[in-house]
Amino acid sequence: MTTEVLRYTAFSDDPEGGNPAGVVPDAAGLDDAAMLEIAAGLGYSETAFLTAPPQGLGGEPGRAFTVRYFSPKAEVPFCGHATVATAVALAERIGPGELLFATRAGTVPVSVTSEGGRLRAVLTSVEPHTEEIADADLAEALAALGWPAADLDPAFPPRIAYAGARHLVLGAATRTRLADLGYDFARLEALTRRLDLVTVQLVHRSGPAEFHVRNPFPAGGVVEDPATGAAAAAFGAYARELGLVPRDAVLTLHQGEDMGRPGVLTVELRAGDPRVRVGGAGVRIP
After folding, report:
1. Cα(182)–Cα(263) distance, rounded to whole angstroms?
2. 178 and 47 in one domain?
3. Is 46 a catalytic residue?
4. Which CATH number fits the domain that encloses residue 159?
5. Which of 37, 46, 75, 140 is catalytic?
6. pLDDT tens digits, residue range 41-78?
């Protein structure tokens, strides 16, 4: 049996931008080893595998699914860009509207709209939280990155943030610091695995609600993720919790520019709702 594997990019309407993801619309019959083999063969930071929804999930008939995400090295609990890519792929087949995904991190609603013939998906994260990082672990992260402590932006306290997956958030004092990313892959991989982190979210603030971000992803076998929806959700929760942005806010995150794959992620925060909404365009890769 041949498994259908689709290729989409998320957070861009240009196939050469954003973050590519694999989408397997029917993963019934694939075991973990087979899914990992497909993800490794594609080489994208994640591939999404869809099967029937669990009983009681809810959602419209035919618009609810179980979704699992595999990087080339391992399964991850949640992936934002592969969620957007999957939602766009489904919308091309069954039309825009509301989708419901059962993930290892929890239930994730996704809304897909068509704007001028282009599809855009907005996911709603699971409930987020943040936690402090031990001084020794922070020192190890900076050593692996090759960042002196003076290169950190003091307005952005280092934290581990979660909105479906764990990410270490570090603020870069300058755009130049953010652009110069060369790190010890094995050393950062060991740290992220020990702390159960998916990526490290490196952030530079370029305006009141505008940020440039980069995401090393050594635990997934990828040097850098071009556009990271799960980290964007985690960062939104982090920024709100620390009072860096209003509780009602729409943030714009630019990612992938330094890799030659520019993408734009929109992060919406709503007062009274702890969850974070992350949206962006998506398009099939020819």
Report:
1. 21
2. no
3. yes
4. 3.10.310.10
5. 46
6. 999 999 999 999 999 998 889 999 999 999 999 999 99
